[in-house]
Amino acid sequence: MVRIAGGTFVMGSENFYPEEAPTHRVEVGDIWMDRHLVTNRDFRRFVDQTGYLTVAERPLDPSQYPDADPSLLVPGSLVFQKTRGPVPLEDYRAWWAYVPGANWRHPQGPDSDTSGRDRFPVVHIANEDAVAYSEWCGKSIPTEAEWEHAARGGLEGADFTWGDEDHYGSRRLMANTWQGRFPWENHKAGGYEGTSRVGAFPANGYGLYDMAGNTWEWTTDFYTPRHPEDAASACCVPRNPRVESSGQSHQLGQPGEHIPRKVIKGGSHLCAPNYCLRYRPAARQGESLDSSTGHLGFRCIVRPQPAD
């Protein structure tokens, strides 16, 4: 783990997507954060010692999915499937498929496995799974503010974890993101198509790897469509704020609207400028608590106990 000193920073951005605004000052305390994403090897150790079954490995409750095809109410998860050519980008179902038997052990479906991928991030992890792992090892999942402060790596107000210039198309790639036209053309400029080995790309200023790209990461905060307004004065800056109410987190009018969403951060290997420019510290997205996908993982933190 890496120790990250707390302090006040400007959270959010007003230059990209509306849910990242407005910028506002936030104070966070000291934390220790995992240097890498939790890997397949890490998660396997947890499962071997506890017998834990992830959400993707359990049967689905029909009452929670009244409009779903009954044939899909079996254990499984969402798997990305590259399209053969350009498609409209408004409907994610063109490239995501619910695959029975897909889970952290079988990331592409029942005929796949994680052989030779011990040092790759574990994926198909729902929020409940991340929390269970963190509690088992005596750690926690970070708040959105803690995660964003750590991702910035000391670069106040920068667009990316490495500075203000995007790495897309450059000779030195700084993160595992989609290189080409999503979702059909990936040049694999970084040598990967899919997740990458943890530590394969440069760390940020705090020595943390994959705080941009590779996999999305869970936080503890329920999703809200906008950040709160900035405090009127420095004396009123919130300290490590948490969004603990699910009231605004529901995606009304969409399938599963009754299931609350929490904030995920960091973007993934599927993020591209033409579709999802979210491999940035300020970027955020709401993810249903029951969701598990082939590009969703996590890392943990420890908050130092105050001295007596």
Detailed description of the structure:
Helices cover 10% and strands 15% of the residues. The chain contains three helices and eleven strands. Strands 9-8-7-10 form a four-stranded mixed beta sheet. The chain has a three-stranded antiparallel beta sheet with strand order 1-4-11, with no helix packed on it. The protein has a two-stranded antiparallel sheet with strand order 2-3. The model has no long low-confidence stretch (mean pLDDT 94).
Task: Produce the secondary structure layout.
Blueprint: E1 2-4, E2 7-11, E3 24-28, E4 31-33, H1 40-50, E5 76-80, E6 96-100, H2 127-136, H3 144-152, E7 216-222, E8 261-265, E9 285-288, E10 296-297, E11 301-302
Parallel strand pairs: 7-10
Antiparallel strand pairs: 1-4, 2-3, 4-11, 5-6, 7-8, 8-9
Keywords:
single chain; 308 residues; mainly beta; 4-stranded mixed sheet; 3-stranded antiparallel sheet; 3 helices; 10% helix; globular
